[in-house]
Amino acid sequence: MSDILVVAPHPDDETFGCGGALLKARHSGAQLHWLILTEMTAFSGYSSERIATREGEIEAVTQAFGFQSVHRLGYETAALDVAPIGEIVKKIADIFAQVHPSDVYLPFPGDAHTDHKISFDAALSCTKWFRAPYLRRVLAYETLSETDIVRRPGGLDFTPSLYENITDWSAKKRSIIELYGEEVGDAPFPRSLEIVDAKEKVRGAEAGYAAAEAFMLLKEVRP
Q: Does the predicted model carry a pTM greater than 0.85?
């Protein structure tokens, strides 16, 4: 049985980025684990009502995916760049040691949001084989509104090297996206059901399926 860890800078990144792949893996018997690096706080300007709503969303999404465990680092949203990177790495390494993931999904380091890049850098440093000998695959996912939404001069482009057929799971994925309420808007807003559907169709057309998610395969170990 495989253990899959998805690293999400913010709640909802995991669903937009690889929700279909996670649901498919869960159906095949994998155990799912969710690592959330940041959270809404009053210090960041969020109301107590919005924070309570977000807590309810996280609980509902946990149940919908069937996550075996949820790990929350509690950093301020949009403030990972002021947190000591060594501290972040240590906390993620501790979670790796608890979960022993065979597969890890990471946000793409070229994303517009700095929280995504820092999350990637910190988690990637935990994937060395002599630190995590149980790890078999490391993949980067794309996130609507963050990946390729802007181009940094000399920056990275998301170049898919692995496609997951999620035709049977796209409807369930969309139902989970809807649990996030205020995070979902109307097209052309990137985080909308219409754009999710369009992206899945484009990725599916690239791979010969009705709907697909695309990933960059960063590492695969075959014993």
A: yes
How many residues in total does the chain contain?
A: 223
Q: Dihedral angle at the C-alpha atoms of 90, 96, 99, 104, nearest 10 degrees?
A: 140
Amino acid identity at 75: Y
Count: domains in the chain: 1
Print the domain residue range for 180: 3-220
CA nearest neighbour of 214 among 148, 134, 155, 126:
148
Tell me the per-residue pLDDT of 41-98, one tens digit each, with 9 for 90 and over.
998 889 999 999 999 999 999 999 999 999 999 999 999 999 999 999 999 999 999 9
Quick check: 78 and 108 in contact, CB under 8 A? no
Edge-first strand order for the sheet with 212-220 is: 69-76, 31-39, 3-8, 103-107, 137-141, 212-220, 162-165
pLDDT digits 0-9 by tens, 171-201: 999 999 999 999 999 999 999 999 999 999 9
Identify the residue whose tokens are 């107590």: 48
Q: In CATH, what number is assigned to the domain containing residue 152?
A: 3.40.50.10320
